[in-house]
Design brief:
single chain, about 280 residues, alpha/beta
Amino acid sequence: MPGIIYQGDNLPILRDMDSGSVDLIYLDPPFNTGRQREDGSNSYSDSWPSMDAYLDFMRERLVELHRLLREDGSIYLHCDWRVSHHLRLMLDEVFGEDNFLNEIAWCYSPTGPLSRNFWSRKHDTILFYSKSPGQNTWIRQYTELTDNDLKRFRHVDSDGRKYKIVRGHCQYLDEHKGRQVASWWVDIPSRGTATKSKEWVGYPSQKPIALLRRIIEASSNAGDVVLDPFCGSGVAVAVAEVLGRVGVGIERNDDVVPICNEIMRVAADRWRLTWPAEVISS
């Protein structure tokens, strides 16, 4: 099944989708920033008459997203300091407090203007929930070992293999998966750095390929359906397709399909992979 991007308001589209048809949801919704932009077909408004109006908008969609998830499915909601506390309470209400798994801090590079009278805001929050307790797909993720980690493999056996002693047992460097990723992500550059890379296509809310790769690889398997109901530049759909999942996105803007295909080509080239199908619009 090829990936699909539906163009239009996501609420009626979500309501038309089958219950229990999605394995993983990632959403990077509006943050109630008050910003508006007019740029041809790529217009954008994140301005609401009140916080209550914004939360009503989000609640309707989260209820539908809960219905769409399979019992072993997961949801990652990407937000920032403006609404993270509101949305966590809402996710507790819709998904259940017992299904909260992590509050992930995706940290920015410490660049840009400094704040005059408060700590500089240099991270986004990603709220991670499951549909049912203990049933969610989970594949542990790793990063490369640091120089300090490597120094601990100070022993060498007769075959020339480096190892360290852990609780009385030999742990070999060539069998080590790396450093396990925790809930504090400092190794994925933010947009400020990404603008200089090949993957940046100029979409203001575009997220890094590496960020979506980590989420999709951790919480889905090949062939699973990955949904992004606010897909923007289509990074989640593109990465899902390159990784052999079925990417489904929803976006109002008309230019999302060619942008998504460009990101897909970059991702496939970076990992030396091919994707199973071109993304098509509905």
